[in-house]
Amino acid sequence: MASHAELEAQIDRWRGYVQRSQAISPADVDELEDHLREQIADRQATGLDDEEAFLVAIKRMGNLHAVSHEFAREHSDRLWKQLVLVPEGPDGANTPPWRELAVVLGLAVGAGVAVKAGMAWIDDGAALMRNLCLLVFPFLAAYFAWKRRFSGAVAGTLIGSFAVLALALNLFPFVPGGSTQMLAAVHAPVILWLLVGVAYVGGRWRSGQRRMDFVRFTGELAIYYTLLALGGAVLIALTLAILRVIGTDFEPVLEGWILPFAVPGALVVATWLVEAKQQVVENIAPVLTRVFTPLTVVMLLVLLAALATLGGFVDIDRNLLILMDAILVLVLCLLLYSISARDPLAPPGLFDALQLVLVAAALAVDAVMLTAMLTRIAEFGFSPNKVAALGLNLLLLVHLLRAAWLAAGFLRSRRRFAAVERWQTEYLPVYGVWATVVVLVFPPVFGFV
């Protein structure tokens, strides 16, 4: 059998996975590899190329040997998904492209209509801000409901959750300009996005692999939506410039019609693009994480140096604390996306060490933030904003501490990367629980102020 670099790399990945099983001796691994190569050679003799031959061979090996099947199952979101696993939907693969495009465009227009109607019916700006994501995210969930064909129980749970959240956001007697109202508006999108995640995984939220798929999807969606937004901004700027030259005022149409439809509609379209072109973004993801991880480490170190120059924690401005929390959340998102984009079978490397440095720097910043918050609470007392920020920082502290511990063990070859990945997916629901507490419990506890 002719040797090809990509094929040999795939076989090496398979062999490395099989070798991790303590129940298989080196001699057995050699025998299994010989059998795999024979299967590949047989498939190539029928005219299949390297990739197709490897896929079919892995499929056959999966039927013959449990470890090979587990290897194929773990990589279900990558190269061999279509041959090893049963499709997620009964007819998703047979859906004509034009039909899916029609569904996507219909949902995109529906999201735009919902936002436009909300802007017309809701006069209060704060109320509109509380409901904005509630007007858009159900359309994303509806797309996945159509795509995944999940059960009525899952659909009922999602509809009920959306309804409870909508009632709370609109029936609670929030004091105008109060803190709990702003906290509800900020934390409601977290709950809504996790509900979209439940729809994305087809209700199989207990599956750690499916939760990691959703993390990967979230990062890829952010990339696509940003690209669409940048392209749309360029087109709009050029259109405005041309119409100004000829004396036409285009801004009322832009603000009243184009943006209310384009912004939510582009989110639905970007969701569809991620589903349709996932393999393209998977090539971009490792590049992005390797570019932004070192830059983020430098940024955190600069922030730590700047914070060290401050006289005392009480003097730290509350706006600075909010910005620092936003940076920590951004670091967490980068960490999750980096883990989702990594090959779980690859050995520890330099980039894994850099990620550990990133987590350590984030922990140092979080420790400074917690100290500052506790100092301010001791000085000025409790408030909804302070309790919410304190809770978030404590959640981040636990998350990052455990992530650092597991990453250090992986670098020392004492743990498999699966343990690092599993911790991220197991901890994700905790943020949803905290956001639910902030939205549903904080307002009545603090008197809706």
Distance between the termini: 73 Å
Q: What gross morphology would you assign?
A: globular
- Major β-sheet annotation: none
Task: Count up the helices.
Answer: 17
Q: What's the alpha carbon Rg, rounded to whole Å?
A: 25 Å
SSE string: HHHHHHHHHHHHHHHHH
In total, the number of strands is 0
Tally of discrete structural domains? 3
Helical percentage: over 70%
Mean pLDDT: 82
The percentage of residues in β strands lies in under 5%
- How would you classify the helix and strand content by structural class? mainly alpha
**Low-confidence residue ranges:** 75-93
In short:
This protein has 449 residues and is an all-alpha fold. The protein has three domains: 5-84, no CATH class; 97-272, no CATH class; 279-415, no CATH class. It has helices at 5-19, 26-45, 50-64, 66-74, 81-84, 97-121, 125-148, 152-171, 179-200, 208-245, 251-276, 278-308, 318-341, 350-380, 384-411, 417-440, 442-445.
